[in-house]
Write a structure and sequence with these properties.
alpha/beta; nine-stranded mixed β-sheet; two-stranded antiparallel ribbon; about 10% strand
Length: about 425
């Protein structure tokens, strides 16, 4: 890329040119990533989803109140449909109709209790494997955020554990006793799966296959077995902001009503050290699926579950034939930070990417904000164009400095909102 630019624009500082382009776009408080076309098909889609063996540890039933109306009811545990069609050969409508309602490879399903109850906003699923330290910090933060706002009943927390690591199990048990974790699901893939990985997949790629299978298991359990209308996925190395849950409470009705929206994410890849802090109250529509703390509806899961990949589930969610021109809601300032220096994506992948993203330090009650612009795709697009046209170029010397790769001495923490 740099070589091509130097040939096309001799005498121009390529790094400065690239930085100017970045800064011009970033000055808009309604920044939209445009690495996909906005003119693709807009489609309203169907309803829910499952896979693998599960064990449930259940807590007490809870009831609560969801602002803005009642969510659709859930499917009964064990209801099934069948099809062998794949995502590459069917339309979104056919994918939804082809949905298979099984729990595990043998059709098993977790107990329907404690499942979805009226007026709960979403199940919070914390996915973990073998990092008890990260899991403990993540659950501690979730517990603090939920209890500080007295909204724990609106967002029941489940832990989906891949394997049976004893230290991880001990952490889950501790938070079950505290009342935070409502149930634990143990994901135990059959021996044939691990044998296949050993025979056909390179060692450094196997974790991506395990992660994709675990995600499918967790989402299937949430939607098919327990009947939740929405799920929030949080990996064990994520720490959430004080307004993480108000953000998703505000995003939920947007996803329910707008067929041009795909999902909602609490993460923003552009909220990196060295760039302007951005507007903490601004939300955006983006063509890129960020992940890292995200909400999905049952109807979208019913669609994407049919073609769920064996590995790299996040790239699958970004694929044009899956996204179909739909967009993702995200905050301008990230509501999650990633503390996972050790994991599938470690080393430079972590330090050069996720470690650089800073989280929000100002609490915003998104439920009380006017989000009508986000709900109107055409109006939002016009507003973005207008702001970019009015934007001024800003030179950010600090952005080019190596020391900005890891901010705050390598520690990424949220300050509790007062």
């Amino acid at each position: 890329m740099r070589t091509l630019l130097r040939r096309a624009l001799p005498g121009v500082d390529v790094a400065l040119l690239l930085l100017l382009c970045l800064c011009l776009a970033h000055t808009s408080s309604l920044w939209v990533q445009t690495n996909r076309t906005l003119a693709e098909e807009e489609t309203r889609l169907g309803a829910w989803g499952p896979q693998d063996h599960v064990k449930g540890d259940h807590g007490e039933d809870q009831k609560n109140f969801l602002p803005g109306g009642r969510p659709p009811g859930g499917r009964e545990a064990g209801a099934t449909e069948s099809s062998s069609e794949t995502i590459s050969s069917v339309t979104p409508e056919a994918r939804a109709a082809a949905y298979q309602g099984k729990g595990g490879d043998d059709g098993s399903c977790v107990s329907a209790r404690p499942g979805h109850e009226e007026n709960q906003i979403a199940a919070v699923i914390v996915l973990c494997h073998d990092r008890p330290g990260y899991l403990s910090r993540s659950l501690e933060t979730l517990e603090r955020r939920l209890r500080a706002r007295s909204i724990s009943q609106r967002f029941p927390v489940y832990v989906s554990q891949d394997g049976e690591d004893k230290e991880v199990s001990a952490v889950v048990d501790r938070f079950s006793r505290s009342g935070l974790v409502r149930a634990r699901w143990t994901h135990s893939p059959p021996a044939a799966f691990e044998e296949k990985l050993r025979e056909a997949v390179k060692p450094h790629m196997r974790s991506y296959h395990r992660i994709a299978r675990h995600y499918k298991f967790a989402l299937s359990t949430c939607f098919s077995c327990l009947g939740f209308p929405r799920a929030i996925l949080v990996e064990d190395d994520l720490v959430v902001s004080a307004d993480f849950f108000p953000y998703f409470a505000a995003a939920a009705p947007l996803l329910d009503r707008d067929p041009t929206l795909f999902a909602a994410s609490a993460w923003n890849d552009n909220a990196v050290a060295g760039l302007p802090r951005g507007d903490p109250a601004a939300l955006q529509r983006t063509d890129f699926f960020p992940g890292l703390g995200w909400m999905v509806t049952r109807r979208l899961w019913r669609e994407v579950e049919v073609g769920w990949p064996e590995a790299f589930w996040d790239e699958y969610m970004r694929s044009p034939h899956v996204r179909l021109g739909r967009q993702v809601v995200q905050p301008e300032v990230s509501r999650t930070v990633n503390i996972g220096e050790r994991g599938a994506s470690s080393g430079e992948d972590y330090h050069g990417g996720a470690a650089r993203v800073r989280g929000a330090e100002i609490y915003v009650n998104f439920v009380e904000r006017d989000l009508s612009l986000l709900a109107d795709r055409a109006a939002y697009r016009n507003e973005v164009k207008s702001r970019v046209a009015r934007a001024e170029v800003e030179i950010l010397d600090a952005f080019l400095e190596e020391r900005t790769k890891i901010a705050d001495g390598g520690k990424r923490v949220f300050r509790d909102a007062k």
